[in-house]
Amino acid sequence: MNKPCIFCEIAAGRMDAEVIHQDEQVVAFRDIHPQAPTHVLVIPRRHIESMTEIEAADAELIGHMHLTAKRLANELGIAESGFRSIFNFGRDAGQTVWHIHLHLMGGRSMGWPPWPGN
Ligand code: 5GP
Ligand code: ZN
User: Which residues does UniProt assign to the signal peptide (predicted)?
Assistant: First the structure.
């Protein structure tokens, strides 16, 4: 049997996470290893492995993930100071969980471009 996807487990409420928002389409929760004072992950409830899997019919869902990030940036007080919204896809980008997730990060200044160490 395949190992259950941890983000599907969190979305279904079978695994603990500090959930800060949920609706019919997405769940947002705090990253377990935060890389910034505010580090939240926004995931679709539906299991999608990578950007390479998305289709035209997913446009509204992907847009909703961004609108959720914008709303949370406001609520968490990082909209004015600035924030990153990042998707990592595939090996070179460092994707470690194969269920797409938007990283919402803020509360410190961040380097650019994202060479190793940034
Ligand atoms: P990726 O490297 O795939 O873009 O990001 C995966 C993120 O998921 C990492 O920042 C990691 O800390 C976070 N993460 C992995 N497992 C868990 C978990 O069980 N709970 C939570 N809240 N975050 C997790
Ligand atoms: Zn999943």
Answer: none
